[in-house]
Amino acid sequence: MKKEKFIEWLRTNGAEILPTTNSYELARFMAHGRVNIVYEGRRGIRCVGFAQECLEAWQEGRAMNMGFTQKPRNSLQRKQLALLQRDGSLCFYCGMVMSGTPGTQMQMTVEHLVGRAKGGPDHEDNLVLSHEVCNKKVANLPLIEKLKERERNLYGINRHPTA
Question: Where do the CATH 1.10.30.50 domains begin and end in the chain?
Fold first, then answer.
């Protein structure tokens, strides 16, 4: 099973990706107002909740509507959902797809374009989604430097003269 592709399929079909709680969980997600889990262990793959139907649909290449029937539980999840709907699941800085798997370099984080330490607001207009590693790379750079980093990564533009 291609875990990253399944998680991206879940996200594309409206599921809210949740952090896994142990090494046996392949995916934990919220769909139709309840938590669903896909496990992999010695006995193979097991599913809890709506997960079996989702897994079968993914394997068959079918789309599913897994829209939320509950609001995300905290403000970070609400912001991530709003940003995903606005911008999609590509990293702002490198343009590659983000996974929701905690502890990986491809993990999705919410990035403040103008850092809070520099007076940047905690508002959607100042937020983008980025990989954890990309977020750490730009850290507390000024906005103009963050935008230059994005241009270099996405378009190969280097505005600095070569020596």
Answer: 75-155
For the domain made up of 3-60, the CATH class stated in words is: alpha beta
Each residue's pLDDT tens digit, 116-154: 778 888 888 999 999 888 988 998 899 999 999 999 988
* Helix, strand, coil % over all residues of the chain, rounded to 5: 35, 25, 40
Residue type, 121: P
Q: How far apart (Å, rounded) are the C-alpha atoms in residues 16 and 7? A: 10
Topology given in CATH for the domain delimited by 75-155: DNA Binding (I), subunit A (1.10.30)
pTM of this prediction exceeds 0.85? no
Instruction: Summarize pLDDT for 13-63 with one digit per residue, the tens.
Output: 888 888 888 888 899 888 877 788 999 988 889 998 888 999 899 999 998
Q: Could you write out the DSSP letters of every residue in 42-68?
A: TTEEEEETTHHHHHHHHHHT-------
Report how far apart the first and last C-alpha atoms of the chain are (Å, whole number): 48
